[in-house]
Structures are given as C-alpha cells and as structure tokens.
Amino acid sequence: MYVGKNVTRVDARDKVLGRTKYTDDLCDKSAYIVRILHSSIAHGRVVSMDTSQAEGIPGVVGIFTCFDARDTHSFPTAGHPWSTDPEHQDVADRRILTEEVRFYGDDIAAVVAEDEVSAAQALRAIQVEYEEYPFVLDVQEAMKEGVPQLHKEYPNNILKHTTIRKGNYEEAIKEPGLTKVEGWYETPTVQHCHIENFICYAQMEGERITVVSSTQIPHIVRRVVGQALGIGWGKVRVIKPYIGGGFGNKQDVLYEPLCAWLCWKLGGHLVKLDVPREETFVSNRVRHAIRSHIISWVRPDGTYAARKLEAFSDQGAYASHGHSIAAKGAGAFPQLYPCENVEVDAYTVFTNKSVAGAMRGYGIPQAMWAVECHTEDVAARMGMDPVAFRRRNVMPVGFVDPFSKNELYHDTFNQCLDKALAATDYQRKYKEYQNQTGEIRRGIGLSLFWYNTAVWPISLETSSCRMVLNQDGSLQVQLGETEIGQGADTAYTQMTADVLGVPLSSVHVVSCQDTDVTPFGTGAYASRQTYTAGFAIRQTALLLRERILAYAHELTRMPPYNLDIVDGNIIRTTDNRVLMTMGELSTEALYSLTNSQHLSAESTSQIKSNAYSFGCTIAEVEVDIPMCKVKLLDIVNVHDAGTLINPALAEAQVHGGMSMGIGYGLSEKLLFDEKTGRALNDNLLDYKLSTFMDHPRLRALFVENPEPTSAFGTKGLGEPPACPVAPAIRNAVYHATGVAVNEAPLNPHNLFRRFTEEGIFTATGKGGFNHV
Amino acid sequence: MSRQYKLVSCTINGKPVEKMVDVRASLTDMLRDDYRLTSVKKGCEVGECGACNVIINGECFNSCIYLAVWAQGKEILTLEGLAGPNGELSDIQQAFMDEAAVQCGFCSPGFIMSAVEILEEKRELSDEDIRKRMSGHLCRCTGYENIFRAVKKTMLKRLGKEKEAEAVTHCTLKV
Description:
The structure holds 2 protein chains of 2 kinds.
Chain A: H1 12-17, H2 23-26, E1 32-38, E2 44-50, H3 52-55, E3 60-65, E4 100-101, E5 107-113, H4 116-125, E6 127-132, E7 158-166, H5 169-172, E8 179-186, E9 199-205, E10 208-213, H6 218-229, E11 236-240, H7 256-265, E12 271-274, H8 277-283, E13 286-287, E14 289-298, E15 304-316, H9 323-336, E16 342-350, E17 356-357, H10 364-381, H11 386-393, H12 412-424, H13 426-432, E18 440-449, E19 461-469, E20 475-479, H14 488-500, E21 507-509, E22 513-514, H15 529-556, E23 563-566, E24 569-572, E25 577-581, H16 582-591, E26 600-607, E27 614-624, E28 629-640, H17 647-666, E29 698-702, H18 725-737, H19 748-757, H20 760-765
Parallel strand pairs in A: 1-12, 10-11, 13-17, 15-16, 20-21, 28-29
Antiparallel strand pairs in A: 1-5, 2-4, 2-6, 3-5, 7-16, 8-14, 9-10, 9-12, 11-22, 14-15, 18-27, 19-20, 19-26, 23-24, 24-25, 27-28
Chain B: E1 5-12, E2 15-22, H1 27-34, E3 53-56, E4 59-62, E5 75-77, H2 91-98, H3 108-120, H4 127-134, H5 145-158, H6 162-166
Parallel strand pairs in B: 1-5
Antiparallel strand pairs in B: 1-2, 3-4, 3-5
Helix pairs in contact in B: 2-5, 3-5
C-alpha cells in the first residue's frame, strides 16, 4: 500500500534537474511580446489616447487601446464553477481593456511588439488624457453618502451585505450579570507572491485559440475567454503546464482574455504576456483587507450569551471573487465558538484599490485574526486561562453545520490542542512569562482555526478521471484537478496504485491539463482536490479493475471473483498463483487477433459531502520593546486533515502555510499612497516577504482522525496551515507585553504606535510594567 | 535605435561556447534564450527573488542583474550542469528530493546553486550562517524548512559527518 507512505514527489526529479518546463520555457521565441499600459490615476475616465509616437518605435507591432476593445464583452473573473442560474453567476464587471478607470493600475491599453525593449519603450510613449474623479481608499469611508461611486449598480459601493441571524441578540444581551467585551481587528492587503509571475501565451490553430497559461483553473479559463471574446467556449483550448505557485491569485482569470483577444486581432500570431513583478502586486489580485468589529456578551462562567460581528471587506475596484470571501469568514463566526444568539453583518465594499480575490484561506485568515485575537481578549478580561476558555466554548464533537451538513466527528480541537501544548511546553511557559519587566520579554500565544473545505453545497462538486492501460501494464491517469506545487499528482499516483493493485512506478499521472484532452474539472481551490479527486480516482480505478479482471477471465477461464490484481500481476486468489502479469494481459488485449480490447475507464464522481479541517498554532516570541521588534522563537501547527496520503508532503504543505502566516502576522502589507492611490511597495524588496532569516524551525504535527465521508479518509490541507498563525503570534506578543495589537502585521511601525499609546516605553524605562 | 551586438565567449556547464549577444541583454536572457538553459528562472528581474541565481567563477550571482557581456571569459554553472553524464543526480539534488524540499519547483534551481556554493567551501557552517547564505532566495511554498535540512545534511555528509547528518531530523520528531 502506498497511501500513508512518504513517497517521493513524482515530479521532484525533473524539478531538481531543472528540466521541468513552465509556461515561459515552452513558448516559442517567435512570440510577439505584450505589455499592458496601466492607469496612472485611481479613478476617472480615459478621454483620449495618443499612440502616434509609440507606433513609430521600431519593433512595435500594434497598440490596442481601450477604445479598440469596445467590441469585447463584460466577463467575470472568479475561478468559480459557472452557475446556470443567473442569480448565482459571478459579477461580470471586467472588460479586456477599460475606459473607466477604477484603481491606480487599471488596464487601459496594450502594446504588442517584437521584443521586450520595444514594448517597454512604446508603453512610455503613449500619451493619455484623463478626466479625473475623486477616489476612495478606505472601506468604511466608501460606504458613506456622497463619496465616489465605483459601479453605478452598487449604491454606497456595497457589492454585497451578507447576514447571519441566530436566536435573538437584542433580547439575549439583557441577561443580568453579563460582561461586554468589544474590539476592532484589522488585517492588511497582502499579495500571493508566487515566485513565477502570471504568464500566458496564445496562438490560433484554424478558427480556434489555444492559450497556454500559468493557471490553477484551466477549464474555467476556457469558459471565461469564450465569454470575453463572445465566441463558443469550445473554440478555446487552454493548456496548463507546470506552474510556479498560485495560492489563489491564479484561481482568477487574469490576462488570458486580453492575450487571446490580441492574438485574434493579430491574425492568430503567437503572443506572449509575461507580467512583471510590480504589476503582479498591483494589477493581479490581492487578499481582502478586512476590518472586523466584535462584541461578545460573556457570562461569569465564561460562556457566551450573545455575540455580534460586523466585517468590512475591502474588495478593491472589481468584484472578482467578491462577497464569497467575507461570507466564508462570517460563516466561521457562529461555528468555531457556537453561541445561541448571534448577529453577523459582513459588507463587501468597492474601493479604488487593487482587486481582491482568492488567496490561501479564502477569508479565514482574516476571520481567525479577528476571532482569535478577540478570544484572547475575552479570556483576559474574564480572568480565565486562554486554553481553558477555548476548551469551554469551542465547537463540540457531534456539531453539524446546518448548511453544509459537515459534522465534527472527532474531538479534533482538544486533540490538536493537547498535542500543541505538549510540544511547546505551553502551560509552564505561560506561567513563567507572566509579569515580566525589562526591555526584552517573552510570551507564548495560541490560536485555533475553523476551515470548511471544498464548496458543496454552494455548488455541486464533481471530479472526472480517465485511466488508460498501456501495453506494458502501466497506465496514464488524467484528472481536471491541477498540480500547482502542492503535490497533488503524487497523492493521485499513490491512490491509483493502491486501488488498482499496481506498483507506483506503473502509474503515470499526466500533470498537464489540456481542455481538449483532459476530463472536465474546475481546478485547484478551496483545499478540495485531494478529497474531491479521491472519489473519482477510486471509482475509475475500480471500473478499470473490473474490466481488466473480465478480460483476465477470458484469457484464464477463471471466474472473475477468484481473480485479483496484486503488485501488477493477475493472481488467482484461491492459491495466490500469479497467472499473468498486467503487461502480458494488456499486450494481448491490444493485439489479440480474436478479442482485442482497449482497456480504459473514465468516470465522473458527484461529491455531495464535505469536510471540516481543523487545528491550531502555538507561537513563542521574544519582544524587543525599545526596538519594537518581534522575534519568533518557536512555532507549532497541529492539523487534523484526516488520513494523510503522504505525511512528508503534508508536512511540507504545512510549513509553507506557516510561512505565509508568519509574514501575515509580522511583516507583509501592501501600502497605498493616500494622495494618489498608487501602491507604494510593489516589489519584493519593499514588500516584506518572510525570508530564510525570519523563521525558527517550523514544526508541523498531525492528528489523524480518518474522515468518514472521504474516499481515502483524507480531507483538505492546502489552505488551513495559513489560517491560525498570525493571531497566535499576536497573542504571544500580548502575553509578553500586555499590549494588544489589533492591526496586523506586528511590524515595528505598528508596535511603535501601540507601545506609545500604552505608555510601555516609559514604563520600561522605570524598570517595571505589569500586564494583565 | 540601432542594436549593438558583441561576441561573448565563455564556458557554460563545462563546455566552451560563444555567441553574439545583444549588449543590453542580461545573463538570464542569454542563458535562457540563446542556450535554452531554462532552469534559470525569472521571478522579479531586479535581483530580489534569487530564482535566476547561477555560479560564475565559483561565486553565486543573480544573473538577471548581470550583463551577458560580462560573462566574457567566465565559467558559468547552471543547475543543468550539476548532474553526471548519465543523468546521475548530485548529492544536493538528491537531498532536495529526499527531504521534500521541492514543491512548485520554480525557486529550486536558484536555491540549489546557492547550496552548491556553500558545499564547495568544504567547511561547516552554523545554522545561522546557512540561513544567512540562503536568504537571498524567496520561496512561497516551503517555508524554507525542508530546504534548510537538505542543505545542512548534505554539508555534513560531505564533511564525513554521517552521524551528525542523520541527526538533522524533521522538527516533528522533537516532540
């Protein structure tokens, strides 16, 4: 059996040899180069554009302005399955190029040239005349009367107001003896920063357009390119090679429609659009910055009587994934710590900033920041131990989500907590670090997280798989689920080998998705693929096995029920005799003169179930108060992702999420100039991604409670590791200093402001400061 | 604007080569476009991410901010040059596989070449120094943890410290 084993990644060898081909490596050098002209104002209208000088630059093939793109169609960009119900379709508010400018960095023209240098020169030579409008950058400002409106269909810039009502909040707060705890919590705009920037190229073959793209969602890209160009979706072929990370940015249709349109305009010539890093920061997608306001009414015994959450989610200029992110975060609120009386109001609001879309965690890192900072505040206010307080209120075993019907089958939270507490010696350190004085102080902090995987029942989850047997008994496996670095192909290889009964080396999962060839699938998002593809793999492998054994019956005259496939051989189960190898069987099947069969199987699974994937982080920090610096000393994530298909790869996946969470908690923030709306740190030098120097050893631990609904006992792990990290760090700093920093990240700028407000510098100077 | 070209003769992965290159081209452009050495990756093109890192005369450089014409007379080593004549993996490549230090793989070539530079010094670096020497590379997938282990283990093994290398374990085992 291979499931549960630390099998080496199937693509690792090629990757360490440097022979793995990514999009740019595959593009022919005859390609024209595309560069996009982005707006240099935050809000307004393009009145005119003078391209005459740019057109005269040698090497320039063509300049295409927003006025040339009037014949294209509005299209949505979210990497969601299409809804056949118009009410549930994503907002189609993007154009290939736009005359209406809604953020600094909007796409207003494109240059096509023979080489990068000419394209860059032409960009600079285009003169743009704008009519400028006032703009708004703050999410709550944007909701006020009289402020600039981004989209006329959405008054007060509110894309969507999502509500949850449970019990009766107003009545519940009248209960005598309640303590009211209230706080505002804020997360920053951050970017995915996959090391391969978004890139795609397009070429026509016959009347069809082929787009090769660094995307997580090839079949969705096909649909959206068709929508944007107003052509049949079958006229578009999308190919996804290996990609250099995605993290949700590439779960959006980015520039594939523009690239395909330019190719079409240029008679089908090969065109390549390779987005520079700076434009990736500003003009791709970012994570929604969310400002949350929580009020909790707490009984003296530490239980909740009533709770209220207001969240303001900064959508930026266009709808993209829209309210789904705030809605997902809001959904966590009444569930992580269930309470009888809850009110949630989440507003997703347009501002004149970079467009927010999907990013690892999909609203949950923001929600956990608010909820778990607040939980720490409530425990402190009630004079309760933060662990005991959480244990008292956390989702109990047997909890069922009324919407998704997800159930908490195991005592996951307590098991994860126990493991994390033991691993970090939390209780001892928590006591030891109380009441410190001096300039350097240590603290230890905790955060749980809630994560709901996949998207059922918002849409039906489906996965298709095809398996084709080769002459030598090996097989190809194809799935719509995409490898984006997480190790999906390796997990699928292990699953297939186990169900079919063949050696790992006999299974070849085709990594590349090609919408002309690959079975339909919606792609990598929502931590869904290992869970979802598992069903299709098991079903298809069982189907193929049945066909193989039926053919083996023809050849051996043994009844199929006495036959099995073990280690790539057809065996007779009554005496375990090897009757033939799979290679002998499949060669005969293909070349038989009397009964030739092409042994293959293809099937679609409909997945009408889903799973919770929970866990926690504990972080230990050292705070240098005068320097306003936090050093992370130790960090542990514990996850229950069900049965691990490949523990080593699961661990690696957790490391990456922890790293992203560390950046979220300590250093990352995309800044916008209040005077112009322009992004100020749109590069990897000024935007502070965690480096090798910013981490302690990362520790990933697991609790493996098999998920009963799953085809392999497994459930999602892609996004969860990024969810609980930042609030655990914040709570550790709170423990060390007594200063609650409610705005992420805890960089020196924020700490200086908060330490000043709390008077901690003075207190430190006097040699003593006691915190709660 | 007329283009200027210059003949650049150098040694790439042990093989003497020469080609006319655009004087404005970066070494990344030359290696990728003229020699099709596509392990040399572009992540920022301004020397921030380290994905284009190659070894020039024994020393690591971000090839995106190194002009192609400066390569005249130099010995350049890219990831493609590490494997043996029959595709045998070098120890550091094997370690990246064994320690699950590769995910999307886009930053891996740059990291591996920096590791090679460290390993060629044939001396034992402290954990802190390994981190410092590798900190010119950004990775969003791995959190650097498994890369650290791959580099440290290989360094110790090359110094004949098999036992110490085996002691470099996953952090999970600390519990």
